[in-house]
Write a structure and sequence with these properties.
alpha+beta, 3 helices, 4 strands
């Protein structure tokens, strides 16, 4: 199982590089159910910013987090997609559906 997980991680890593390089646009990778099945990720350093799904409550800059690669980010069940590079600093913002009235 570990060999399969490492191969899947390497494949995701390579597909992300190819996708970003060939398209030469802002990189976005939507996490899939298969990404969640990975047990151990390869130690590839390809910094990405993982973005939480809309059902998560965001506090200040907590709507995203930095990860070493796509595999590390997407195995988190609350991450919807990743973007290339480390997360940029954001201003605090909240959606109406993510806040509750006190």
């Amino acid at each position: 199982m570990n060999k399969i997980s490492l191969k899947l991680s390497a494949l995701l890593f390579l597909s992300a590089i190819i996708k970003y390089t060939l398209l030469d646009i802002s990189f976005r990778y939507d996490c899939t159910e298969y990404d969640r099945l990975v047990i151990k990720c390869a130690n590839n350093y390809f910094p990405v910013c993982g973005w939480f799904n809309p059902y998560m409550k965001c506090f200040a800059n907590a709507c995203n987090f930095n990860a070493d690669n796509i595999c590390e980010s997407c195995k988190n069940i609350y991450i919807e997609f990743v973007t290339y590079g480390p997360c940029e600093k954001q201003e605090a913002s909240f959606d109406e559906k993510n806040t509750t009235n006190s």
